[in-house]
Design a protein that fits this description.
Layout: E1 5-10, H1 14-26, E2 30-36, H2 40-50, E3 53-55, E4 66-69, H3 76-85, E5 89-93, H4 100-113, E6 117-120, H5 127-138, E7 145-152, H6 174-177, H7 179-192, E8 201-207, E9 215-223, E10 228-236, E11 244-249, E12 252-256, E13 264-268, E14 273-276, H8 288-305, H9 321-332, E15 334-336
Parallel strand pairs: 1-2, 1-4, 2-3, 4-5, 5-6, 7-10, 8-15
Antiparallel strand pairs: 7-11, 8-9, 9-10, 11-12, 12-13, 13-14
Helix pairs in contact: 1-8, 3-4, 5-7, 7-9
């Protein structure tokens, strides 16, 4: 019988109990051996569900093969470094780091330790994102492009810690929270078009407040020998937005959500709409939980077999660094302005 990979979970909040833990428990090649949380009662509660030991400090955790880091972002570096020193590979929740320098340093530390850091950019596994990327890679959708990534609504995530209410000067609120997803998706789309992210110009980053941003609008543009286009990113914790992902290239548009979805619509200039079917290899992907299961299977496969495959993909830290660098540049452009109607500007075009 193949030896199961031992898993230590650090941070016992909602993202773990709702998504990561079920994915780990259903995987026959891994077993949870320890739970760490500064809230001892919460660590004990989850440990009792899994038969694992529980601790309040990562320093006390015995060795494991994989450390899932799902703490508040501000303390992730302080968890990842000890985990690497203990010989563990790491799966880190997003955002991987508050800035590019920290992310680059962590990736370097993993390489020096001979271990891997994976990042839970789970939206890369969503079936609708797979369809959009396939269309871009095939050349069906090409320059000039307009891309819109819009996501917003009243914040209702059942956070266990109070880190979202803190005024950490490094935390840019929704930019690091939702923006780490949306900028990562934009970076993927541009890589599919062979656009160097360093050639992407940031024209605007309007926010409602600093340092912890609740509402943000970003405009970007690129004009290279390979591709030309513009992009807008809108995100809010207080205003209900369209929750829409649009890739527009006359005479057609691809329309879906930046969230989990099993469908992508193709809208033609004559008003006709076609539904793009889910590829057969993704038919099993019916829910957000399935995306987390695929993510975990990829991590386990990569550690067990020391390589990635199309069947079991994983997201290693070096693949998210370009998006983090772009996010850094966006943050540098932050300007506080009134929210009045700026989310509505130009939305009739989409």
């Amino acid at each position: 019988m193949k030896k199961k990979l031992k898993v230590s979970i650090v941070g016992a909040g909602a993202i773990v109990t709702q998504y990561h833990l079920p994915a780990i428990l259903e995987n026959e090649e891994s077993v949870v051996t320890s739970i760490v949380d500064k809230n001892e009662n919460r660590a004990k509660q989850i440990a009792e569900q899994t038969g694992a030991r529980y601790f309040t400090s990562v320093e006390d955790v015995p060795g494991a093969d994989i450390c899932l880091v799902a703490t508040p972002p501000a303390v992730r570096e302080a968890v990842i470094i000890p985990a690497l020193k203990k010989g563990m590979n790491v799966l880190c929740e997003k955002p991987f780091a508050y800035n590019y320098a920290i992310a680059q340093g962590l990736a370097k530390a993993a390489k020096e330790a001979g271990k891997k850091i994976f990042v839970a950019q789970s939206r890369r596994f969503f079936p609708n994102i797979h369809i959009v990327r396939s269309m871009l890679q095939s050349g069906v959708i090409h320059s000039p492009l307009k891309i819109a990534l819009i996501e917003g609504g009243a914040f209702n995530w059942p956070a266990v810690s109070n880190h979202l209410a803190s005024e950490n000067t490094s935390d840019r609120g929704i930019i690091h929270d939702v923006g780490s997803h949306l900028v990562d998706l934009l970076a993927l789309f541009l890589s599919d078009l062979n656009v160097d992210l360093t050639e992407v110009k940031i024209e605007q980053c309007t926010v409602d407040r600093l340092p912890s941003v609740n509402n943000c609008k970003v405009k970007l543009q690129w004009n290279t020998a390979i591709s030309q286009g513009t992009a807008v990113i809108q995100m809010s914790r207080t205003i209900t937005l369209l929750n829409k992902l649009v890739v527009h290239n006359p005479p057609m548009s691809l329309i879906t959500r930046p969230l989990f979805d099993k469908s992508v619509r193709m809208k033609l200039s004559n008003g006709e709409e076609l539904m793009i079917p889910l590829p057969e290899k993704l038919q099993y992907m019916q829910s957000l939980s399935d995306a987390f299961s695929r993510q975990w299977a990829g991590v386990v496969h990569s550690i067990s077999n020391e390589f990635n495959s199309d069947e079991y993909p994983s997201i290693e830290s070096h693949t998210v660094l370009p998006a983090i660098q772009l996010l850094d540049r966006i943050i540098q452009y932050c300007q506080v302005e009134s929210l009045d109607e700026y989310f509505l500007e130009g939305m009739e075009k989409w």
